[in-house]
TrEMBL record:
This is LytR/AlgR family response regulator transcription factor. It comes from Larkinella bovis. Keywords: Phosphoprotein. The modification 4-aspartylphosphate is found at residue 55. Signal peptide: none annotated.
Amino acid sequence: MTILLIEDEEATARRLRRMVQDVEPTAVVVGTTVSVEESVEWLQTHPKPDLVLMDIELADGQSFEIFNRVAVTSPVIFTTAYDEYAIKAFRVNSIDYLLKPVKEDDLRNALGKLQRMREALLEQPDGLKASLASLLQKMAASAEGNSASPTANAGQVYRDRFLVKQGQRLFSVSLDEVAYFFSRNKLSFLKTRDEHEWMVDYTMDELSAMLNPKRFFRLNRQIIAELRAIDKVNLYFNGKLKVGLRPVFDEEVIVSREKAGEFKSWLGE
């Protein structure tokens, strides 16, 4: 078994490598990366490993961003000190989710789970091939930035207001006041229709899961816009779309060719 280890704490990485050798002596750690950027580059330039051990909090951001940048078709076991990320981890098809400090028994159980899954797939006609194809499709969908589906999930409860801070004062902003959410320098903000900007304590991925997809659409990794904030849409090169927002956003807002069809369908609902 070949393993890519994504971990930005050197001491933790050393401990995990030793633990892997104790639990699975035939396993080989073929690479160790410490950041989103380095991990994306490694995955683009090396044969895919049999398993990825992936820390969630890295030096340059959360490792979920890796799935937005490159197709990850290897099974993933996430490690983190924070259990709040469990649901998001399983949205990107992880095999297991281990809390730090990782215990040897937990790692052994996770590797055993992976092995059982492989054996079950191989017992079916073309099982492994079909599974990898399905996993690739799911990862590609995840790579769209976990954008909101144009159809709301039955029973899903969505946010209708956000708490923001102004100096020492906290107050609530209703979604009826929000034109769009945007990210800048790894921070997230909301912009109201009357052009006030407030920082919000959520990532763009987390916001996507909180917002009603009938009202909000993730145009790209940087912008989630409310329907009424779409001022104009123009054709752009290579099948992309250029979107004008109201209030005006200070950078070009481009919808990728892959998302253009979904966006047009959302506009026409």
